[in-house]
Amino acid sequence: MINPSWRRVVLKVGSALIAPENQGCSELYLRPIAEFIRQCRLQGLEVILVSSGSVAAGRHHFNFQHQRVPIALKRAMAAVGQSQMMNFWSRCFDFPCAQVLLTHGDLSDRVRHINIRNTLRRLLDHQILPIVNENDTIATDEIKVGDNDNLAAMVATVANADALIICSDVDGLYTADPNKDANASLIAEVRKIDQHIYGLAGGASSKVGTGGMRTKIEAAEKATAQGIDTLIIDGHKAEAFQCILAGKNPGTIFYGQARPLPAKKHWVRHTLRAKGEIWVDDGCVEALCQQGASLLCSGIVDIQGEFDSGDAVLVRCASGKRKIAKGVSRFSASELFSIKGHHSSDIASCLGYCPAGSNAVIHRSEMMLLERI
Ligand SMILES: Nc1ncnc2c1ncn2[C@@H]1O[C@H](COP(=O)(O)OP(=O)(O)O)[C@@H](O)[C@H]1O
Ligand SMILES: N[C@@H](CCC(=O)OP(=O)(O)O)C(=O)O
């Protein structure tokens, strides 16, 4: 292994490897990937597979020629393709596989999030291979992750993995899309993911891929923030897997951060979606950014959107409109309209009741700063 300290690995396999001809599942690339999984397990690694391909595997059952598939048809394709894909994977192994279908709604609900973690641990404890995909048959825009690169990063985080390996149809991250620019060169190592790195990424070029390189960089950003090394490799090439087993890097490695975010803060920053915004004054911005304070109602000048207590929100500077932080609001939008600008000691008289716990609107432990001033 590239890093001998890896104990648990999430392997993400894209649709182009599952159904390369868009004509149902093919064993062509699945066999070498399955052999890699077997070798990893023999070396004592725990493996979780995140497999795309339900839509691509089911597509040929429907006589539909256009590139853009309506969502209702996609759900039907996923329903038939998912079971065929599971069948294919199961036939590749002499140990049991478990199907785990998730949506973003599951990962962003704290109780379901913990259930997912516990289930994955139980499966791994019993040497069963978890095979995860988005639950495409029921997913709506509101509850879906939308691409399996980000899903795999969330799975790696919830499972406390040491490494995320994304098997794509290119060797790794290039200086430009290698399918469009013949001069593009492979970047072997990335230590910091910034706007320059995002600027290199183009969209998907295959007929079945979702997201292209951008979603892979997003996934790497999520995973590395939790200390998880992230690797992009070409899953078509059996040599790429041999390289990893021999301790070499065949693609691009994004190194996990040495000081990972605490799990709750990581979940707030990288899994929860903001349902609304709280706009605050300059004094509040300084208290949050310079003094490490919790957000109190006295600094709030406006509220945008509808949200409940427990929902994630963005905190924005009312004067400059900059995003300052993301966190979990302990009050709903309508409660905040009644208490904004007031001192915390006025909350009970403004609302007519006393909220449980502290008076902080967003407690420091549930807030992530998005920029420093
Ligand atoms: N900077 C880049 N480096 C490598 N590939 C890139 C880059 N920008 C865009 N791409 C495209 O991203 C594609 C891989 O993403 P995608 O088609 O979504 O595949 P997958 O099924 O593996 O998720 C590549 O085939 C390539 O055309
Ligand atoms: N969940 C979808 C795959 C979504 C996706 O991200 O696909 P890909 O870019 O091929 O990894 C499916 O199984 O068809």
From TrEMBL:
Catalytic activity: L-glutamate + ATP = L-glutamyl 5-phosphate + ADP
Pfam families named in the record: AA_kinase, PUA
Molecular functions per Gene Ontology: ATP binding; glutamate 5-kinase activity; RNA binding
Residues binding substrate, per UniProt: 52, 136, 148
Pathway: Amino-acid biosynthesis; L-proline biosynthesis; L-glutamate 5-semialdehyde from L-glutamate: step 1/2
Gene Ontology terms: biological process: L-proline biosynthetic process
Keywords from the named record: Amino-acid biosynthesis, ATP-binding, Cytoplasm, Kinase, Nucleotide-binding, Proline biosynthesis, Transferase
Residues where ATP binds: 12, 168-169, 210-216
A single cellular component GO annotation: cytosol
SMART domains: PUA
Enzyme Commission designation: 2.7.2.11
Broadest EC class assigned to this enzyme: transferase
Compartment(s): Cytoplasm
Family named by the database record: Belongs to the glutamate 5-kinase family.
Function: Catalyzes the transfer of a phosphate group to glutamate to form L-glutamate 5-phosphate.
Protein name stated in the entry: Glutamate 5-kinase
